[in-house]
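Hi R.,

As promised on Friday, here is the backbone we talked about, encoded as structure tokens. Could you run it through your design pipeline when you get a chance and send me back a sequence?
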């Protein structure tokens, strides 16, 4: 079961997707304070919309607040209107971007459980003016299981590098799918129903082509959906191939140096961990018998962490 605030948030997001409303919810917060822990993020209100449509008001607020804190030297972003740039059955991607290629984007799930992702990127150029980095597809997505213990669909999101025109997902067993592109090179990739179970078990590679061959690719390990109870209990069921244990980075408070705690998996893949009152979990990673990661890092966003991260932005 989710903490009360997060469960209410998930219910609110789903109602918004169905009714196309823009009601605000008390659990929806701006996450500009994530800068303090090395990332930019935001939770916002989602509504099912068409490509190019203006984002809901709360999304506009979240994205511009993060720009003010994290990308203050990019005034062009502050002048833009956030809009829907890519969609999938389970999630909508909103973004603001300037003419130089800088952007911030927010992914909101529209389905059972909770899906959330965020990314900000600054375009880098060499002294000769050539573009060095632009386009991100390796951004992590946070998943919470629904109250009935079902997991949300797996999705990936990002932006194609400049001059690329197509994208394809290739799994480690050779299965492939074409990735649909939205506006301004943004995308949300939701594996088809026949590949959803595979996407939970093995890595995929997202490759981008300029029409003559792949020129950019990202290797993505499977995510690990979680179940949260209260502020200190984390559990889940791991289905990732070769998984043997879960590693949790936990600190005594937000911003403190974390310790690493190893949690074993039961025979059915389940795990359970309870932290000390007041502790803060930074991330969770599934590892194999050699200690190598077999999952993407998962940020653990309890209601307490949400409150602490959002406080400086109020």
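Update: got your reply. Pasting your designed sequence below so it's all in one thread:
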């Amino acid at each position: 079961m989710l903490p009360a605030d997060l469960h209410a948030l998930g219910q609110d997001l789903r109602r918004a997707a169905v009714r196309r409303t823009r009601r605000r919810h008390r659990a929806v917060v701006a996450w500009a304070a994530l800068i303090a822990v090395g990332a930019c993020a935001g939770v916002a209100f989602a509504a099912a919309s068409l490509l190019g449509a203006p984002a809901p008001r709360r999304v506009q607020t979240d994205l511009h607040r993060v720009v003010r804190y994290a990308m203050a030297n990019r005034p062009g972003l502050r002048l833009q209107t956030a809009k829907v740039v890519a969609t999938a059955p389970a999630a909508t991607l909103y973004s603001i971007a300037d003419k130089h290629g800088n952007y911030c984007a927010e992914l909101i799930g529209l389905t059972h459980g909770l899906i959330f992702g965020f990314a900000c990127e600054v375009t880098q150029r060499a002294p000769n003016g050539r573009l060095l980095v632009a386009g991100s597809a390796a951004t992590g997505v946070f998943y919470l299981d629904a109250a009935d213990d079902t997991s949300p669909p797996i999705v990936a999101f990002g932006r194609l590098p400049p001059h690329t025109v197509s994208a394809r997902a290739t799994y480690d067993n050779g299965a492939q799918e074409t990735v649909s592109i939205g506006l301004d090179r943004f995308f949300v990739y939701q594996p088809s129903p026949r590949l959803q179970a595979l996407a939970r078990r093995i890595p995929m590679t997202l490759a981008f082509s300029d029409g003559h061959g792949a020129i950019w690719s990202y290797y993505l390990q499977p995510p690990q959906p979680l179940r949260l109870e209260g502020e200190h209990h984390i559990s889940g069921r791991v289905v990732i191939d070769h998984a043997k244990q879960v590693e949790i980075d936990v600190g005594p408070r937000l911003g403190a140096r974390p310790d690493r705690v190893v949690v074993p998996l039961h025979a059915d893949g389940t795990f359970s961990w309870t932290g000390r009152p007041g502790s803060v979990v930074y991330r969770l990673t599934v590892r194999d018998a050699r200690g190598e990661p077999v999952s993407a890092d998962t940020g653990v966003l309890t209601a307490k962490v949400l409150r602490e991260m959002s406080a400086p932005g109020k």
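One thing I noticed while checking it: DSSP finds five helices and 20 strands in the chain.

Thanks again,
M.
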